[in-house]
Design a protein that fits this description.
- The protein is mainly beta.
- The protein has a single domain, classed as monomeric porin ompg (Porin, Beta Barrel).
- 2% of the residues lie in helices and 56% in strands.
- It has one helix spanning 224-230, and strands at 2-9, 11-12, 22-23, 27-41, 44-58, 61-62, 91-94, 97-101, 104-119, 123-135, 150-161, 164-173, 186-197, 205-217, 233-234, 243-244, 252-265, 268-281, 287-295.
- The strands form 4 sheets. It has a 12-stranded antiparallel β-barrel with strand order 1-4-5-9-10-11-12-13-14-17-18-19. It has a 3-stranded antiparallel sheet with strand order 6-8-7, with helices on one face.
- Strand 9 and strand 10 (123-135) form a beta hairpin.
- The protein is elongated and about 75 Å long.
């Protein structure tokens, strides 16, 4: 079983236009999961099923007139928003503030199956597949938890020394495809170096995983509310009226993950995490923090 609380912070970057960025506040996920390992199933080792429920709180998406001072002087991309720019479903709140989406609450239900193809003392290769169902989630919204109707992936672990290992994972998610195009699919790549020791400052086994994380959208989508506020109006040709252009939403996030943990007992661990984006665009948040507990129950006794 596992219990985890996640907070996303930093900046939310709905489009490449820096005037659309705002500070991330009130973005939380609360996850409770349980799984059962059946053992070997033919050539598959450690065959397991898992079910998780996640309650989330996503932040209001609202323009920030104070802006982020990230552009060079004189390189601003748009003036302070007025009522004319807050259209296509957005609300103008006055004082140059446009609200694109309100704060939201909902849930995600995730079911997964996993197994190991190879698992020995020095090397392990595992595969997994999962499905996800959102409940009361506004899929049009940008600052949402990651949602993939279907996802697949692999995990590799190699022990290089008794206290040093390497882990690599591949995650392939479909977003809301093939049922809709409201959320993009994604490929995620993680490479972690894993250092662990019998004890550290506390009388517990301790370890830390550190390495790069890359997340790249496989599709792109568009949002009329952000287009009306931040995408330029294109002048038509002779006899053609001006028209609203559209900017794609297609995220790329290159980050570093720092994941310490403590083995309080052989069957109970405390897990912490911090992910910091260094560059990319269209990010739901540039910082992720989480803390959780993971426990093992031996039902054979």
């Amino acid at each position: 079983m596992n219990l985890q609380v996640t907070a996303e912070r930093g900046k939310t970057e709905p489009t490449e236009n820096q005037d659309s960025w705002f500070k991330t506040q009130g973005f939380y996920e609360y996850k409770l999961g349980a799984g059962y390992t059946f053992g070997d199933l033919g050539p598959l080792e450690f065959f397991a099923l898992r079910l998780e429920g996640t309650f989330f709180q996503s932040p209001v998406e609202r323009s920030d007139p104070s802006k982020f001072l990230v552009a060079a002087p004189g390189e601003g991309t748009s003036p302070v928003l007025g009522a004319g720019e807050c259209t296509a479903g957005a609300s103008y709140l006055g004082d140059g503030i446009c609200e694109f989406y309100p704060a939201d609450e909902g849930a995600l239900v995730t079911g997964a199956v996993s197994f190991a193809v190879i698992h020995d003392a020095k090397f392990a290769l595992g595969l997994f597949a999962r499905g996800q169902v959102p409940i009361d989630m506004d899929l049009e919204k940008f600052a949402n938890p990651r949602v993939d109707y279907f996802a697949f992936g692999s995990q590799i672990g190699v022990e290089l020394k008794p206290t040093f290992a390497y882990e690599s994972s591949i995650y392939l998610g479909t977003g809301t495809r093939p049922l809709s195009t409201k959320q993009n699919g994604v490929v995620g790549l993680t490479n972690l170096f894993h250092v662990h020791a019998e004890r550290w400052l506390l009388p517990w086994k301790v370890g830390v995983k550190l390495g790069p994380y890359v997340e790249i959208d496989l599709h792109e989508r568009h949002d009329r509310r952000y287009d009306a506020a931040f995408s330029p109006i294109a002048l038509g040709g002779p006899g053609e009226p001006p028209h609203q252009t559209s900017d794609r939403i297609r995220a790329v996030r290159v980050a570093t993950a720092l994941l310490p943990y403590f083995l309080v007992t052989d069957r109970l661990s405390v897990e912490l995490g911090y992910v910091q984006k260094f560059f990319g665009y269209d990010a739901r948040a540039t910082q992720v923090y989480f803390a959780g507990l993971r426990g093992l129950i031996d039902l054979s006794r």
